[in-house]
Please model this.
Amino acid sequence: MAQSYSDQQLQAYLEELLSADLMASIEAELRKSEMLRDRLVTLVGMREAGVHGLGEIWRRNRLTCPSRQQLGSFLLGAMDENLQNYIQFHLEKVGCRVCRANLDDLKSQQSDQKVDTQLRRRRYFQSSAGYLGKP
Ligand SMILES: [Zn+2]
Model:
């Protein structure tokens, strides 16, 4: 059974906005599936008719991007399961580069915060140990 791709994925494919893996698997599928080629031809036709200009596709795709706050909750695993699944899909299947960059940024912020907390704890421990150590 052929894998199916959404119109949005195919449009993103045309704009080369997908991850390298997904680009490659769509290309492989295009070689096998006449149906998929037909759909792509239709999409290209719509694009050329000005229905989906590059700017419009970009804005539409960006509208489906989760907010930075949602990405933060996603990292913590603290959100609705449906939304969690959607964001996972958005990052891994759609391979949105904007959100991946955002997520990487959030990850490095979180690990910075962790280091801060550890440092604070250690300082607190040392100062209270010093205090308690005095007779
Ligand atoms: Zn995104």
Summary: The longest helix spans residues 97-133.
